Amino acid sequence: MCIINWSVAYLENQRGMVMGSAHIVLAIIGFGVAFGRITSARIAEGYRQLPVLMTAAFASMVLTFFAPLPANGVADSTLIILASVFSSGIYPILLGDASMFPPSLSPAVLSAMMAALVSGTVLLPFLVVLLREHVGRVQGMCSISVVFLLLIISLCYR
Questions:
Q1: Distance, CA of 62 to CA of 66 (rounded, Å)
Q2: In whole angstroms, what is the distance from residue 121 CA to residue 58 CA?
Q3: Cα angle vertex 144, ends 61, 85, to 5°?
Q4: Tens digits of per-residue pLDDT, 63-109?
Q5: CB neighbours (10 Å) of residue 131?
Q6: Can you give the pTM of this predicted structure?
Q7: DSSP secondary structure letter of residue 102
């Protein structure tokens, strides 16, 4: 969800969108996240969770990587919104999956997931800004997709 944090500043500074338009995109992202969470919960009920997570993570990775590449604010906005829709259901499904562990393991799994979330929340913005300042804004935004690649790798060894 880091791409959401940077989307308004990126669209305004890199793509020249006016402030009001970029904030409208942010509002649409909010609706997209709600839609994505509701939809992913319904899909996860009917299918095994691993294929749903892998599909959402892969789509999020691809969309997040390509979102900053078009030199067009509308195309960037569309890809950011789609990336947010696909990525929004990943964490709730993972939390639900962790709660299915035996009671003796469930607290440890949930604690590890929360630690990963907090670590990512602290470290990822720092790393994105570091890349953005030394390599470029587009590359910094594209680097967010690495998080989804790491998730896919970890799901492969589940």
A1: 6
A2: 21
A3: 50
A4: 989 988 888 888 888 888 999 999 998 888 888 777 777 777 777 87
A5: 17
A6: 0.82
A7: -
